[in-house]
């Protein structure tokens, strides 16, 4: 009995010491004398991460708006015991993302190239590994390369229009988000992997399964995101795969088959796989190290994630807004028609890039519904804030709330109103820089930005040239984005 009592006392003491440690960790910002929001529970400013309704994006947004209300330049919150710094002043944001990038050049996300090859992609890499991959991939995403890929993208428009024709004849409301998912899966399958996914007709398409797994909020994905944003050190020890092993094997083998076939048969196609082959030839000619099949697969995977989900949701939100703003829809449709007349009735890359009102409509959609709700950085070496006696310590997490900035009435009056005129050249000049960050900014700006915008604008141009979009009978304008 005495042994049980000793053991019980030890466990209680251990628990008490652990709680004291957490309490000490959650006084970090108090010790730093930085404005902050006090930790609400053992989870900091989070809810229980395994039951929570609000994710990091909403927590960062609410913190940004609270610090803005207090009229302070910055502040701190806690993700469990992890201190996170929230910059509010656009100048601070500029310093972090661009001017003083050397102090904030990492994401700090866990990855394991040996055990989980697909985790070693551009978004997860930091330091020299990130820099080396970024330099190799940058030529893949030039405007010239996008132009060569345009017709490959355009070919995916036929199945999209046919699918909507069939659904329209039935007279049922469109699940536009699902339709856009299928379209972008076809586009990424064709442009990135050189394969026809046929997502509209084949419910068992492997790329469709891959997309479904990525967008489903499963227990695996909850644990993955917790490790990624809240406990990266734990994530490095207990690595959680984002994808099941069978989907990882499918992706790596699919890429290997495509590359081997093209090498053996001399097949050339305007897509990402062809660009990887060109990179390999260039590296060999210069006696440089080539990308491995695992590295190619990892970058292709992140192209897929970024290319299909973000563009699909952006197009869905855009069409939702146009359905409730018919005057904007009509004006955009007229610009599309005028551009087609100018280009002999054909949708071309140059035509897409010429559409100024299209650009405004897309930008306003990205403002209201940013694909990156927040930007994550890690302080890689101590940084003294300009004009302040405050040092951001190495290892501190940085959260730049795009959602908060984009809905800040100081920069965007009546932020809940959909107004493309915010993005006329004249109106853009009235706002400080670094107050529109849908793709990030600085050296770690989204490398696929050009492709994402091309895909989105092309999809919208195809749809508005053929259809008029209206709200469904039982629809509601205000969406629950929580």
UniProtKB/TrEMBL annotation:
InterPro entries: Cyt_P450 (IPR001128), Cyt_P450_CS (IPR017972), Cyt_P450_E_grp-IV (IPR002403), Cyt_P450_sf (IPR036396), Insect_CytP450_Detox (IPR050476). The chain crosses the membrane at residues 6-24. One of its GO terms (molecular function) is iron ion binding. It comes from the Eukaryota. Its cofactor is heme. One of its GO terms (cellular component) is endoplasmic reticulum membrane. The keyword Transmembrane applies. The keyword Endoplasmic reticulum applies. Keywords: Endoplasmic reticulum, Heme, Iron, Membrane, Metal-binding, Microsome, Monooxygenase, Oxidoreductase, Transmembrane, Transmembrane helix. Its main location: endoplasmic reticulum. Heme binds at residue 446. It is found in: Endoplasmic reticulum membrane; Microsome membrane. Belongs to the cytochrome P450 family. This is Cytochrome P450. It comes from Oryctes borbonicus. The lineage of its organism: Eukaryota, Metazoa, Ecdysozoa, Arthropoda, Hexapoda.
């Amino acid at each position: 009995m005495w042994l049980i009592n000793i053991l019980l006392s030890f466990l209680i003491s251990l628990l008490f010491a652990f709680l004291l440690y957490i309490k000490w960790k959650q006084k970090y910002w108090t010790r730093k004398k930085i404005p902050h929001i006090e930790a609400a529970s053992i989870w900091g400013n989070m809810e229980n991460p395994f039951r929570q309704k609000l994710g990091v994006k909403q927590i960062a947004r609410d913190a940004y708006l609270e610090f803005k209300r207090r009229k302070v330049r910055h502040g701190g919150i806690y993700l469990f015991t992890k201190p996170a710094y929230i910059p509010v002043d656009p100048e601070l944001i500029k310093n972090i993302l661009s001017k003083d990038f050397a102090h904030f050049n990492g994401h700090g996300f866990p990855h394991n190239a040996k055990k989980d090859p697909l985790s070693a992609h551009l978004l997860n890499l930091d330091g020299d590994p990130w820099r080396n991959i970024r330099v190799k991939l940058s030529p893949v995403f030039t405007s010239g390369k996008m132009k060569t890929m345009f017709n490959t993208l355009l070919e995916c428009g036929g199945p999209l229009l046919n699918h909507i024709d069939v659904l329209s004849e039935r007279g049922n409301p469109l699940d536009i988000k699902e339709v856009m998912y299928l379209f972008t899966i076809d586009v990424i399958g064709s442009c990135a992997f050189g394969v026809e996914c046929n997502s509209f007709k084949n419910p068992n398409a492997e790329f469709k399964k891959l997309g479904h797994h990525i967008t489903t909020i499963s227990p695996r994905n909850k644990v993955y995101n917790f490790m990624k944003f809240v406990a990266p050190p734990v994530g490095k020890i207990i690595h959680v795969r984002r994808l099941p092993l069978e989907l990882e094997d499918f992706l790596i083998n699919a890429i290997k088959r495509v590359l081997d076939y093209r090498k053996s048969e001399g097949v050339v196609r305007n897509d990402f796989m062809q660009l990887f082959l060109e990179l390999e030839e260039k590296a060999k000619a210069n006696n440089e190290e080539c990308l491995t099949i695992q590295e190619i697969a990892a970058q292709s995977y992140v192209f897929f994630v970024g290319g299909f989900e973000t563009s699909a949701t952006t197009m869905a939100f855009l069409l939702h807004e146009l359905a409730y703003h018919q005057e904007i829809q009509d004006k955009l449709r007229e610009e599309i028609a005028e551009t087609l007349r100018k280009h002999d009735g054909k949708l071309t890359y140059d035509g897409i890039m010429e559409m100024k009102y299209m650009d405004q409509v897309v930008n306003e959609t990205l403002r209201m519904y940013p694909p990156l709700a927040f930007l994550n950085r890690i302080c890689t070496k101590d940084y003294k804030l300009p004009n302040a006696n405050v040092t951001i310590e190495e290892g501190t997490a940085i959260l730049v709330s795009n959602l908060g900035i984009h809905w800040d009435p100081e920069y965007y009056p009546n932020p809940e109103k959909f107004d493309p005129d915010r993005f006329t050249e004249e109106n853009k000049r009235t706002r400080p820089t670094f107050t529109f960050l849908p793709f990030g900014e600085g050296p770690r700006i989204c490398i696929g930005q050009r492709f994402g915008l091309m895909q989105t604008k092309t999809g919208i141009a195809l749809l508005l040239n053929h259809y008029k979009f209206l709200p469904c009978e039982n629809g509601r304008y205000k969406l629950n984005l929580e």
